[in-house]
Design brief:
Strand content: 5-15%
Bound molecules: pyridoxal-5'-phosphate
Strand order of the largest sheet: 2-8-7-6-5-3-4
Order of helices and strands: HEHHEHEHEEHEEHEEEHHHEEHEEEH
Oligomer: single chain
Shape: globular
Number of strands: 15
């Protein structure tokens, strides 16, 4: 037996254990000081009532021989795929139910999708980035090229025509930067992908945080921010879209997401939609019926109204953090259509120096930007997934600088 040597090329992920260790040490030496955690990338609001009652009903169905469900369709129950298509139609995007695959979350699909692509493809990944994109490609030994986010491009890099890539990752609204591409910028990426015969893996895990004026926007105006890449002409020929109920409906522990692969994405004579269906029917046995009923309820009018209440709560936290930073004259991205705020460390400190400074002087915990890639050095991520009172207290402490 020989191991997959590519695993040895992964760098250890010390980020969150290192944060936890420093917070522990601080609390031990400052037992009377309260620590406010603005570092979490997990939601704090519980599942909404519409989801709970749908899942309770489904539990009872599972206990009755007449309504019991065994194996379901690997790509997900039709009732949920139809609900997802209904959600897209409100965004002005028409999808066929067969273009939607129900998953146990975006992370697994983002990793597993790579099985469809040859290992000799070149992968283009923005930096800083959600670490899953980089690590899953290192595991399969692919060549990764980075495209840099920075202050000049507002952490929204655009393609370099001289770089040829086959697989492109985009995440908007972005984790960690909170930055969101507008229509015009995303169109540049779609055109680049089409010219290069590349595919875009579009991570839309935070799409619901984009505030739309109305529910029925077909994004045409260039500065509008699309909540689906399919609102951009040509995207159905080159983009996969990965969505998740984790951040949108508090499903981080319940596990459900959906991936869209349009049938119009064909390379050679092969439809990538058929390849993924073949993969799923071989390696996946679907998401629990009970969870899929809960997910269906997210897309009901009642469920949508309830989750939008929670999203508005997180967004108000983000707005408060952004307002405070503006007052302190700190450069940042995000905080508007995203639960994340990405700020430039005060006094040109490094990410970890700033982490220690924020903890020691203010008792505030955030996430050092350097943990998301080399271009994150000197920056810092704050998250709005917390309690309102804690966010207020943290901002009051910062204003006392
Ligand atoms: C949280 C998150 C996801 C969602 O992952 P799940 O597996 O669905 O919980 C996907 N992408 C990004 C960038 C995230 O931050």
């Amino acid at each position: 037996m020989n191991i997959n040597q590519n695993y040895l090329n992964l760098s250890d992920s010390y980020l969150f254990s290192r944060i936890a260790k420093r917070v522990r040490e601080y609390s031990e030496s400052n037992p009377n000081k309260s620590v406010i955690k603005l570092g979490i990338g997990d939601v704090t609001k519980p599942l909404v009532p519409a989801v709970i009652s749908a899942m309770q009903k489904a539990v009872l169905e599972m206990g009755n021989a007449a309504t019991f469900k065994g194996y379901g369709e690997e790509q997900g129950y039709l009732f949920l795929r139809e609900a997802v298509c209904g959600y897209y139609s409100k965004k002005g995007v028409t999808l066929d139910e067969n273009e939607v695959f129900i998953s146990d979350g975006a992370k697994s699909d983002l990793g597993n999708i790579l099985g469809l692509f040859s290992n000799d493809n070149t992968v283009l990944i923005p930096n800083p980035v959600y670490p899953v994109y980089v690590d899953t490609n290192i595991m399969s030994g692919r060549n990764v090229v980075y495209i840099n986010g920075n202050e000049e491009n507002g952490f929204l890099p655009l393609p370099d025509k001289n770089v040829k890539a086959d697989i492109i990752y985009l995440c908007s609204p972005n984790n960690p930067t909170g930055a969101v591409y507008n229509n015009e910028q995303l169109k540049v990426w779609v055109d680049y992908a089409l010219e290069n015969n590349a595919v875009i893996l579009y991570d839309a895990a935070y799409e619901i945080f984009i505030r739309q004026e109305t529910d029925n926007v077909t994004a045409q105006t260039s500065n509008l921010k699309p909540s689906s890449i399919y609102q951009i002409d040509g995207a159905k020929e080159c983009a996969f879209e990965f969505c998740s109920l984790s951040k949108t409906a508090g499903f981080t522990g319940t596990r459900c997401g959906y991936t869209v692969i349009p049938r119009a994405i064909v390379r050679g004579n092969t439809s990538l939609n058929s390849l993924w269906l073949r993969r799923q029917t071989t390696k996946f046995n679907g998401v629990p019926y009970i969870v899929q009923r809960g997910a269906e309820a997210v897309f009901s009018d009642e469920g949508m109204a309830q989750i939008k209440g929670d999203i508005a709560y997180y967004l108000e936290n983000a707005r408060m953090i952004a307002a405070c930073l503006r007052e302190l004259d700190v450069w940042f991205t995000g905080g508007e259509d995203s639960p994340y705020i990405w700020l430039k460390c005060f006094n040109n400190m490094s990410s970890w120096e700033f982490f220690d400074d924020l903890l020691n002087r203010f008792g505030i915990v955030g996430t050092p930007g350097a943990g998301f890639g080399a271009c994150g050095e000197g920056y810092f991520r704050l998250s709005a997934f917390g309690e309102r009172a804690n966010v207020s207290e943290a901002m009051a402490r910062l204003k006392k600088i």
